Description:
The mean pLDDT is 83. The protein is elongated and about 95 Å long. By secondary structure, it is α+β, with helices and mostly antiparallel strands. The chain has helices spanning 19-35, 40-61, 92-96, 108-116, 147-159, 164-221, 228-260, 272-290, 309-326, 371-375, 382-392; strands spanning 8-16, 64-71, 77-84, 119-125, 129-137, 268-271, 293-298, 304-307, 332-339, 343-350, 396-400, 408-415. The termini are far apart. The longest helix has 58 residues, at 164-221. It is built from eleven helices and twelve strands. The chain is 49% helix and 20% strand. The protein has three domains: 8-162, Heat Shock Protein 90 (2-Layer Sandwich), CATH 3.30.565.10; 192-260, Signal transduction histidine kinase, dimerisation/phosphotransfer (DHp) domain (Helix Hairpins, Orthogonal Bundle), CATH 1.10.287.130; 268-415, 2-Layer Sandwich (Heat Shock Protein 90), CATH 3.30.565.10. Helix 7 crosses helix 11. The strands form three sheets. Strands 1-2-3-5-4 form a five-stranded antiparallel β-sheet, covered by helices on one side. A five-stranded mixed β-sheet has the order 7-9-10-12-11, with helices on one face. The chain has a two-stranded antiparallel sheet with strand order 6-8.
Amino acid sequence: MTRAGERALPVVTVIVRQAKDWIVARQRAQIIAGFLGFGAQDQTRIATAVSEIARNALDYAGGGRVEFLAETSGRPALVVRITDEGEGIAQLEQILAGRYRSEHGEGNGITGSRKLMDDFDVETRIGSGTSVTLRKFLPRNAPPITPTVLAKINDALALRPVDPLAEAHHYNQELLRTLDELNRVNRELQAANEAKDLFLATVSHELRTPMTAILGWLQMLNLPHIDPVTRAEGMKAIESAARVQARLVDDVLEVARVHSGKLELNLADVDLREVIDSMWGAVQPAVSAKAVNLARTFDADRFPMRGDLTRLQQIIWNLISNAIKFTPSNGNITLCTSSNGETVTLAITDSGEGISSDLLPHVFERFRQGANSRQHGGLGLGLAIVHHLVELHGGTITATSEGAGKGACFTLQFPLAMPEPATDTIQ
């Protein structure tokens, strides 16, 4: 069924009378979809939907007609109309609702094909046949459907005679590739689900720890005859625990904003060297407490760029804090900043615990955290947030490590702000 106001150009028609004909229809569907700009996955979806409905027409109506059309007005689409003159589908309403299954599997082809296409319309007349219309909208970046494109499709179809055995083999290979892809995706989903469960357990533990300290001190402070020194110590401990808990909640909310795309930057002209200088003093207490050696080097006086001052400080603070956390006493941390005139590179290197080879590819992912990270507390969300903030600035960040116990290096690159071109003034 072509929509009102939309122009449909015929491409090719396949008559289905025997088993090899639905294989022909599948092959034609894949070739046409490829020429119209559909990707490999959509080509397979279209070919599968067409072959299923065409096979239904053969099995239940003794044959049918498969028409391929190209809609060129409105939103361009590939339309496939499959008609037969069989007895119609008495259980159509139940099939479309997913409530009907025959011992022969009738209904599976319709419900499965319906999920593979953008539009799916069925008209059936008991005793007079059935018409199924499939529609898949072209990708946004697909070339327009022109007479030249249709001519190329017809040439390709003419050059590809159908060998049923070869097509069946091709079909089987597609199924095997799809199965491999599904297995890969399933493994990734399972790993992500396990990581998420571990993350939720970590969140519960990390939030409970400061809350336990707060409740314990509150109970103690409510006891009679608490001396001033103990009271002051308790208030300080409560404040410290509350700050830890607030930071944990902030990290979770920050990741939620990243995931929803609501984290935005307040861009201005900034100097990355000044950004580093502005927060250098703030990290010194942690450096002194851990007794690590922290040094910085610059190969230029200025590193002008467009950025969000607060977010850039957050990036650097997080990376240096991580380095301090995972570097033992008397260890070394260096921050080196350099530029090539187009980009500024910031490398933070430490001699700490390093990153294991199995964790390294996932170090910027949410819900991923190594065993050593959990020993140091925190939710392990900082690097995921940093990665997103760096990308929002048009930059890149990479992590390298030779393995556990061999330190790590985080390298950031940002585009430099180009100076305005000089203009001549005419007197």
